[in-house]
Amino acid sequence: MSENALAFVEKQLLAKADLSLAQLEKVMGQLMVKQIDMADLYFQATHIESWGLEDGILKEGSFSVEQGVGIRAISGEKTGFAHADDIQLLSLESAVRAAKSIARGVGNSNIASMTALRSKQPSSSRSLYVPTDPLLSLSEKDKIALLHEANTLAHDIDSRVKRVSVSLSGSHEMILVLGSDGTLAADIRPLVRFNVRVIVDHNGRIEQGSAGGGGRMGYTYFLEQGLSQSMVKEAVRLALLNLEAKQAPAGMMPVVLGPGWPGVLLHEAIGHGLEGDFNRKGSSAFSGRIGERVASPLCTIVDDGTLPNRRGSINIDDEGTPSQSTVLIERGILKGYLQDKLNAKLMKTHSTGNGRRESYASLPLPRMTNTYMLSGNSVPEEIIASVDKGLYAVNFGGGQVDITSGKFVFTTSEAYLIEQGKITQPVKGATLVGHGPDILTKVSMVGNDLALDPGVGTCGKEGQSVPVGVGQPTLKIDAMTVGGTNHE
Amino acid sequence: MSKQATFRIDSEQNIWKTLIEETLDKAKAQGATQAEVGLGVSKGLSVTVRLGEIETVEFHQDRSFGITVYAGQQKGSASTNDLSRASIEQTLSAALRIARYAEPDPCAGLADKADLAKEIPDLDLYHPEVLTPEAVSVWAKECEDAAREADKRICNSEGASFGQSENYRLYGNTHGFLAGCPSSSYSLSCAVVAKDAQGGMQRDHDYTVSRVLQALKKPRVVGIEATDKAVRRLSPQKITTGRFPVVFSADIASGLFASFASAISGGSLYRHASFLLNKIHQPIFPAWLSIKERPHIKRLLGSAPFDSEGVATVDRDIVKAGILETYLLSSYSARKLGLKTTGHAGGLHNWFVSTTCPDLASVLKTMDKGVYVTELMGFGVNGVTGDYSQGIAGFWVENGHIQYPIQEVTIASNLAEMFKQIVAIGGDIDTRRNIQTGSVLIESMTVAGN
């Protein structure tokens, strides 16, 4: 983030409220009483809009503004937190009193001058996305036209399409972090999303299909190379495919996962278990296992917050640390955890730029950004051909994991039977269940076709949602439990 | 009168009511034919104790102001958390601007005036307390201590949390409706980790929740229950794939009826996105099963005097003798379907599902041999087709008794079939939820393991 962005956010968030950096440093001084080791002030202002078209009518639009400041004070393993939704000195001071109530000490600790500390902090001049407001990237007329075109196209593709819902949403978020360690950083984050859902009806059988995507850019992204049209075609294709889907199989079998969004497997099975908080507390099935083999040597997995324009990317995390690419698993060996400042400090290591929060009103936690597996050498067709009887799963809904037992699930939304090395029959959605610490030891082939998801991921943890990305090449897992209804 | 001066969450209600009235007037003056405003204020305290020490103390304070305007049948909405006059003005302008771009929707508009609640019963939902982090941390510590001392196999803790929140929501519209309802909520939860001799770890939790502080379960009881649940999951096995009867424990069985509620809600029906399309007055469940809705029970978590558009909530039979008696409609979805609102904008209010036998033991005995599910994982419920496929954790049951814990297993069927195949419901009702049911036995599902 350039100096210009910091100046811009400072003006937007602070100057408007008649707050100066000098005043904030004074507030920080009030916060840093004895026993408080670390503290930060997090300012945020977000504008969000959404437009929804249903039954051919642009019937809904909404606009919202959310802003506030979150104040955190840390003493050892203790955290005090308070927030205020009006950004002004008085509210700040009362939130400070609340946040520091975890420490009984009085009087200022001997923190060095903030300005002196600041020079020690790494500064990031990276700009992974344009800071301009995506809400202004298209006129209202053009946004609405985009939705109508999508609706018309969906109906034109197939007469079995009975209902179409299309939505377009965007947000423009500005954050500024001031930390007791000298951090002073800002980020301006655009985020857009397009979504289409169709309901098809054929002789009384009703099915649905949906598709969408987006990222940190303006709405014009959806107009490039007919992207919105491709998403509409994809939603219709999936809905029509579901009309043909037969019962999914039940039991243990080889599973081939397609490239891209099926990387939600990595997010659930591996990613969460490697978040610093669980490992600091020793409650993860991966706790204390750095250096051990947890996957087949074909697997190298990274979490990378630095991919331009991706939904899961951030210039800096919500504690002001520049995002980075962190190797989680290298050729099957567990290499590292994802850290925020608190857990890094307690585990005597450094933040990996993964301290993220849903908003000023919630505490930062170690969270993923874009998590994906690197390409291998196999050709996808050869992977399918290697399976005598199994499942080929291309698209998924959500997933979930129990960090402690390591058990995870994810549910297919597009899958096919593989019979004698050939893709044969589409099957209904089925939940796949596995054990995180050993699922990747069963990976026997990795494709050369790494793809990232279209920008649809939202991760929930402790009630907080943050946008994330996933990706992977085609993978073969030798045995996994498939939760269909068809048991022979 | 009161022992201690307490800051009530609705203490500034007159200021807010004036703000809402003025905003509605301005909306009309600026061209809206109808308008509605929702204003919410909440504050809360949450304290987590882990391994005997305070881990986090969080103070929450939130406000929200949302306005929807209708210019004829064109609708626009906007919201803000900044309640300054300037910000409210901007929010109103944004809503009016959007309404100009929206296209006429014949069903758009406020609820009909005749359907709005005329009297607002006092449901006794607000029981404020002055609590300090120190005071509540004592309860959390007592809870976690009890959990950790209850069994040697408890090796770690995710802590015990006490939460307090107070909420006030005001709703007003240009039909002249303006009413609010303050409420309080208290909760205590605990999550612990148990370890077996082989090093396998299992986590589980328990919680208590109430609108009245004194009605919470004792901290020790919550802690010990969390430990019992974690310990009995240790050393799970996979089971062989096959078709078996399945019992859903009371706390997760409410999810089955939540899927039912979603399938009979107006939004799913007018979109044709429901497996229960056109099933009104038809049998959905076995003939002995009934579901009653009682929105006005004092102090209950799901109680509400009116729905989110001011429509009066009333007692209803949702299912009687297994037959679907009503859909769940807002005024919008009702108009889309050519029906009348049922006061379900914003969701359902206190459901009570009938029972067939006294307790869980008798439900397991009726099952004899099969799967007892205590945890569901995943998102494998398809509301359009009713197709159901979820990951589970639970127990293998034989001769009506729990044999051993199971994990890495899935259960699958279709909700329409599952509803018809409900064989028994226990009297072990989970009263912590909006949908109160006991454990539910389903005749047969595909269970996938090895």
Write up this protein.
The complex is a heterodimer of chains A (488) and B (450). Chain A has helices at 3-14, 21-31, 89-99, 114-118, 140-157, 227-244, 264-271, 276-281, 341-346, 380-385, 436-439; strands at 38-54, 57-75, 78-84, 161-179, 184-202, 205-215, 250-257, 301-304, 325-330, 333-334, 355-356, 365-366, 370-373, 389-401, 407-419, 422-427, 431-435, 443-446, 451-452, 457-461, 464-472, 475-483. Chain A has 488 residues and is an alpha+beta fold. In chain A, strands 8, 9, 10, 13, 19, 20 and 21 form a 7-stranded mixed β-sheet that branches. Chain A has a 6-stranded antiparallel β-sheet with strand order 3-2-1-4-5-6. In chain A, β15 and β16 form a beta hairpin. In chain A, α5 (140-157) runs parallel beside α6 (227-244). Chain A is globular, with a radius of gyration of 24 Å. Chain B is α+β, with helices and mostly antiparallel strands and 450 residues long. Chain B has helices at residues 13-29, 85-101, 133-149, 219-232, 250-263, 266-270, 331-337, 360-367, 415-420, and strands spanning 34-50, 53-71, 74-80, 154-173, 178-195, 201-210, 242-248, 291-293, 316-320, 323-324, 351-353, 370-377, 387-398, 401-414, 422-425, 435-436, 440-448. In chain B, strands 3-2-1-4-5-6 form a 6-stranded antiparallel β-sheet. In chain B, α3 runs parallel beside α4. The N and C termini of chain B lie far apart (66 Å). Residues 1-5 of chain B have low confidence and may be disordered.
